[in-house]
Amino acid sequence: xxxxxxxxxxxxxxxxxxxxxxxxxxxxxxxxxxxxxxxxxxxxxxxxxxxxxxxxxxxxxxxxxxxxxxxxxxxxxxxxxxxxxxxxxxxxxxxxxxxxxxxxxxxxxxxxxxxxxxxxxxxxxxxxxxxxxxxxxxxxxxxxxxxxxxxxxxxxxxxxxxxxxxxxxxxxxxxxxxxxxxxxxxxxxxxxxxxxxxxxxxxxxxxxxxxxxxxxxxxxxxxxxxxxxxxxxxxxxxxxxxxxxxxxxxxxxxxxxxxxxxxxxxxxxxxxxxxxxxxxxxxxxxxxxxxxxxxxxxxxxxxxxxxxxxxxxxxxxxxxxxxxxxxxxxxx
Length: 332
Fold this sequence. Notes:
Blueprint: E1 13-14, E2 17-18, H1 19-25, E3 29-30, E4 34-40, E5 46-48, E6 51-53, H2 58-69, E7 71-72, E8 76-89, E9 92-103, E10 106-121, H3 124-130, E11 136-141, H4 145-161, E12 168-174, E13 177-182, H5 185-199, E14 202-213, E15 216-226, E16 235-238, E17 241-249, E18 252-257, E19 264-268, E20 282-283, E21 285-290, E22 293-297, E23 304-308, E24 318-323, E25 326-331
Parallel strand pairs: 4-10, 11-15
Antiparallel strand pairs: 1-2, 3-7, 5-6, 8-9, 9-10, 11-13, 12-13, 14-15, 16-17, 17-18, 18-19, 20-24, 21-22, 22-23, 24-25
């Protein structure tokens, strides 16, 4: 019968040792007693070779550094650590780490301790923000305030959801639109493309030489986003009829006629420049109906009017639009 090589105990054995001797002789995890790390004093990002990792606070940055510093036994699986931090001074932490792991079916535990000395620097992102750094200018232009507001909100949402190395140094309204100074040319190009896809229009890209570095020209790019004054779901009055914009694709718009024969066509956005845009539609109350004949309450004049529903209409919503002295009913 095989027995433990260390104490002579009978099986079960792992690597010819009993479970008790395994727990006494196998080291689950180790860590250096004294370590140093570099952290950004402004945003608490942790410096690692080649880059910085973002964290919300100093404790999170230190905890990540410590967990990454643990050396686990290579035969241990299901590794788990529970960290307890104590700040000794503004630049020094002491940590106690309770570790647990599975070593060939045996659950091992140990506690390791370390002290961390922090050296504070300023990361590249914070340095650039403080220095007013920007690579690109995004110029949003449109004659319609509601579309400008939507575009500006889209840009800010992309900035807020991006990593911290993408930021705006300066942004604000200008005559005819809104300007952003952005830290990334590629991201500015991507945002301008997104604006064009969603809101239509076109983008003009130019660049200016601002210097040289390592023998290469440094260019600052300007992205001029020219948005139309019409948007998707706008109602238009054209050719004495009401049309709805169903889709915008760069400089072209797909529009749908909202009365018989309910046709659709694609037109140049520029051709809609002087086309009247109708105000928001209002809900219509049905007074009575018989088959396709309806009596409707005009929400603008509060008078009862007669109307015939479209042939295939299946009692959906009815909305009304006003142009001049005329009310137009939309059968959704």
